[in-house]
Design a protein that fits this description.
107 residues, mainly alpha, 434 Repressor (Amino-terminal Domain), globular
Length: 107
């Protein structure tokens, strides 16, 4: 059974409405609704794990709630794919034309 189908069945078996389950998962009701009704919707791995614990999902079902690049079983696994590099990352800034260092701040 797919995670989304299982989530709906679990909630119905427990006699819990979507609003209450969202509070228990500490997420918005809209997010849970999207995850339950559309298999194209995904969420951040930490949020997926939090939801998975409340719904008692398997690791594979939790992975199904994550983007492909965060699924360890997926060949496209690359958790840093959409990572935003900040000044605290220790990476040097690329140099601008003329050897002048670029600023991270807009001038």
């Amino acid at each position: 059974m797919a995670a989304r189908e299982y989530m709906i069945e679990f909630r119905k078996r427990m006699g819990v409405d979507l609003r209450t389950m969202a509070k228990q998962c500490k997420v918005s009701m809209a997010l849970l609704s999207w995850l339950e009704t559309n298999d194209k919707e995904v969420t951040h791995p930490l949020i997926a794990e939090r939801i998975g614990k409340k719904y008692k999902l398997t690791k594979k079902q939790i992975e199904g709630l994550m983007p492909e690049n965060h699924r360890r079983s997926d060949p496209n696994y690359n958790p840093d794919k959409y990572r935003i590099i900040t000044s605290n990352d220790g990476f040097p800034l690329p140099e601008a034309e003329g050897g002048k260092k670029r600023s991270r701040h807009y001038d």
